[in-house]
Amino acid sequence: MASEAPAAAKFERRELVVVVKCLNEERHIRNCLTSAVEAVSGMDAIVVVADSGSTDRTIEIASEFPVRIVRLTEGRLKSCGLGAQLGYQFCDCDFVYILDGDMTIDGAGLKVLLQQLKADGTLAGVGGLVEEMGEGNYEFERRKIERDGAISGEVRALDMGGLYRVSALEGSYLTNPNLHSHEEKELAYRLTRAGGRLYRTDQNVIRHFGKTQDTTALLLARWKSAHIDGSGEYFRFLVRSGDVAEGLRRFWNLALLGAAWALGLTGLILVLLGKPLGWIGPAATAGLYLLLFIRFLVRSRSIRKAVVATVNLSVLTAAFVRGAARPQRNPRDWLPAEVLK
Fold first, then answer.
1. Phi, psi of 122 (to 5 degrees)
2. N or C: which end of the chain has fewer CB within 10 A?
3. How far is Cα 192 from Cα 185, in angstroms, rounded to an integer?
4. Which pTM value belongs to this model?
5. How many helices and strands in the chain, by DSSP H and E?
6. Ramachandran bin of 235, using left for φ above 0, alpha for ψ from -120 to 50, beta for the remaining angles
7. What residues does 45 pair with on adjacent strands?
8. Is residue 313 helix, strand or coil?
9. Tens-digit pLDDT string for the chain (341 aa)
């Protein structure tokens, strides 16, 4: 598969491209594109909808807008990391904004970000404040508590969308198609490792209308789509890049629990082989679970929330192991796609 885009595949050159990545977003895509088209009005810019194979009315609705539309032709490849890269591979621009199909963007805020990026050549990317509209499940309760995307200043990553300087990518890919999540963290890692800076302004720019399923339904959906495998996939990327320390820094809790599982399983095997000391492994695993539960209980002051957090961490650990074991393609490879508009 070719690593470089065919010259004829590129859209006309623009200063700015807003890439809207989506998959079955008929519920939000109209508001998203209304805001995006208004945001770039009067600018040397286009909006590119990158669809990963929607089976609902997402494409039909998007076709009503003055945007470019590209669609993935091999559904088995779909991932969050693929979404932005799918649109970006068709772009010829100086700056690119990554926007999710369940977000809306403020035009005034976008202009502030663009001015800031132009004014400071040391910045590889900038973002604005993100207002999280999702609720009703553990994931978005955690986001609000941790204030993801809600703190301004110099940051390690522009999660939840950002504006990036294309030259800072040094001819490489925008987001890693191998990653089912954590793609913006991986992008930030490459940019900052190359000496770029990332900054979040105090300007309100994004509203995110996330999933509203309850915690169990959302977790099952994330498992089925492999979305939560992204931690292990990113860990594998970091290890292959020679930065094991960064991988452990980011995912120490998942790696620790995964190691505890391995220790417990090894111990059970030893017990079956008649080795009485084998019980040390399962006992250590059970002890770790007890400590985790107590920690969650102290933080939440709720037995129910502590149980949910413990189960959630266990599922995330299983996904971490699954993602770390998954082979990865060259992220620079051209993604099979068709231009619909």
1. -80, -10
2. N
3. 10
4. 0.86
5. 11, 10
6. alpha
7. 16
8. helix
9. 334 455 557 899 999 999 999 999 999 999 999 999 999 999 999 999 999 999 999 999 999 999 999 999 988 888 999 999 999 999 999 999 999 999 999 999 999 999 999 999 999 999 999 988 765 545 555 555 445 555 778 999 998 889 999 999 988 999 999 999 999 999 999 999 999 999 999 989 999 987 666 778 888 888 998 999 999 999 999 999 999 999 999 999 999 999 999 999 999 999 888 888 888 989 999 999 999 999 999 998 999 999 989 999 999 999 999 999 999 999 999 999 999 98
Q: State how beta strands 162-165 and 45-51 pair.
A: unpaired
Decide if 125 contacts 165 (C-beta within 8 A).
yes
What's the rounded Cα separation, in Å, for the pair 208 and 304? 27
Q: In the 8-state DSSP scheme, what is residue 195?
A: T
How far, in Å, CA of 289 to CA of 265, rounded? 15
Q: Identity (one letter) of the amino acid at 230?
A: G
Q: Tell me which amino acid residue 272 is.
A: L
How far is residue 177's CA from residue 81's CA, in Å, rounded to a whole number?
A: 4
Phi-psi region of 93 (alpha: psi -120 to 50; beta: other; left: phi over 0): beta
54 CB-contact burial (10 Å; exposed 0-12 / middle 13-18 / buried 19+): buried
Q: What does DSSP assign to residue 125?
A: E
| Maximum C-alpha span of the chain | 76
Tokens of 32: 């998203």
How many CB atoms neighbour CB 128 within 10 A?
A: 27
